[in-house]
Amino acid sequence: MKVIDLINGSKTTAFSFEILPPLKGNSIQKVYNVIDKLKEFDPKYINITSHHSEYIYKTLPDGSFQKVNIRKRPGSVAIASAIQNKYGIPAVPHIICKGFTKDETEYALIDLNFLGVYDLLLLRGDVKTLEAGQNTDLYHEHATDLQEQVNNFNKGIAVDGSTFEANETPFSYGMACYPEKHEEAPNMESDIFYLKEKVKNGADYLVTQMFFDNEKYYSFVERCRAEGIDVPIIPGIKPVVFKNQLTVLPKIFRSDIPEPFAAELRKCKNDDEVKAVGVEWCIQQCKDLIAHGVPSLHFYTMMATDSVYKVAKEVY
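Structure tokens predicted for Methylenetetrahydrofolate reductase:
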């Protein structure tokens, strides 16, 4: 069953979460530990983040430097298959533009189809990944370009234009949205214009960037509905767990922290106090979202599994 059907078919606010693959060389048991802790809340699906290759400079014997491309985390394809087979919970790997060629994306789609993983989240990824001058003929520039490739794959059209027998089960997918505007969008009108394109071209649902002010989410959803965007808009939720996130999260994710929340965080003397405040704010945030009838809550668990568990225990 597709993720969109699981969301729409849930009689209560659905629960889902996102995990980070283990660093290369580490056991998948770390992933299983997160799932084992949260599975009591009946997750409808589990997202697996994907990380692009990274460049390091290796010192050669002659003292010169060589730029080497490395991948620190295993691919989300393998992790998704392992999760789906072990737990019977739909896995949703992230498929991203940045750091992956169009051919690599096609290989991933072929493998996912073979493994029976048919739900995806399509994202652009870290804008800093592509270096200036890198061949954009090999790489997608935007998530909508990636979306076109997946749509063509569903029709049996390969990236080189050749045709093949289309999958019996086509891929379905969600895409990202930004209640506080994407950092590169010139304005919200432009952001929503491209969001409409994503939905028009096949996105089944949208998942928001993390936010801490529900009013901004409600305003964003109202604006989307007025523009004819009628797919589920899933709130992306993350409890604050470290004191430095008071400044780090707004800087990296462009997510405002409301002053009442910020004021409580500033009072905290250590991270343990921050976690307690973060959990309490997140509980109230989630209860309010549920009271407003959101179809689902999607939790970002990176470094916050224990906090997510405490929140879910109170609201599910």
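The CA atoms of residues 15 and 42 lie 7 Å apart.
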